[in-house]
Every structure is written in C-alpha cells, then in structure tokens.
Specification:
The chain contains 8 helices and 4 strands. It has 173 residues and is α+β, with helices and mostly antiparallel strands.
C-alpha cells in the first residue's frame, strides 16, 4: 500500500477512473501490472532477440542489487528471483491485443465478492489502508488477481521481498 501511495505499482495498477459504462461516475479500477519488461511476450518468446533481452534484463537487475551493496553472487540470486516471479505473473497477463477489448476488461465486483474470489488478498483492508471507500471495483483482468494469489502461496516470502525491492529500486531510480 505504501508503494502505491508513492505511485509504484508492483503487483497491480489501481486508481480511480471514469466508469467505462457509466460516464457520469468515477469508479476504482484494478489492472494487471507487475512486469518490468514491456509486456508478457518478452517472457515467453524463444527467439534469439527475446532470449537476449531477458538475459540482459536479469543482468541489469543484478547490477542494481549490487549497487545496493550486495555481493555479486547474492545480487544475481535476487535478480533471478525477480525474473522468476515476473515470468510467473506474466503467465496470466493478457496480451496487448486482449487488453484492447473493452467488454472483456470490464469486470465489476462488489468488494465482498472480490474478496471471495481472491481470498488471499484482503481487499477491504487494502482499500482502508489506501483511504478509499468503495462498495465495488472494476477489475480489468480477474485471472491476473488469481495469479497474484497463487504467487503468494507459491513463492517464499524472501523471494517476494526481492521482487518488491526491485520495483521500489527501479521506479525510484
């Protein structure tokens, strides 16, 4: 939440925007985020160009962790952790073309229903900490929120901390 208050969106982008189906209303929106590379395809294409981009990206992350004072070996481990989580999240990112479909990306949920769908993310508490009072939200990509939930149960906390640290470093540098 503190990162979002600083306009850093490591796991999901969120904010108040005009409701696409009710133009006289502003509604809280949540969209997929969490990738350091341009879009999901960078994580999965196997051509030489994309393989090179991923390798350079991981090396860059390692260099940035080293600038924080970590030894090279630990910095490279943390960089690998970041890329592993980003790849995991990218698996449920919609493609650029899919995000252009206004009907598919308009999924209105009552907060209580969203908490049932994604029970590992306490959205009621999240909104309170953000200082937002809402009954419902528009979720662009619900399957992506489910992937965040899976990430929470799959990756060790220290690895998630590495990922969050990277987003803080990259967005503040």
């Amino acid at each position: 939440v503190n990162m979002m208050k600083m306009q850093i969106y490591p796991l999901m982008y969120c904010g108040v925007q005009q409701d696409e189906k009710q133009s006289d209303t502003y509604t809280f929106h949540i969209y997929q985020s969490g990738l350091g590379l341009g879009d999901r395809d960078y994580y999965f294409k196997t051509d030489a160009r994309n393989v090179k981009i991923r390798a350079a990206y991981e090396k860059h992350i390692g260099n940035m962790f080293a600038l924080l004072g970590l030894d090279t070996a630990m910095a490279n481990v943390k960089a690998h952790h970041v890329v592993e989580i980003e790849t995991f999240l990218a698996n449920k990112h919609r493609t650029i073309e899919e995000t252009r479909d206004p009907q598919a990306n308009y999924n209105k949920f009552k907060v209580s229903d969203l908490e049932k769908k994604v029970s590992q993310i306490p959205f009621g508490i999240f909104f309170n900490l953000l200082g937002v009072k809402v009954d419902s939200v528009i979720v662009g990509q619900p399957e992506y929120l489910e992937q965040i939930q899976r990430m929470i149960g799959y990756f060790p906390l220290d690895q998630i901390k590495d990922y969050l640290t990277w987003f803080l470093v990259k967005d503040l540098s």
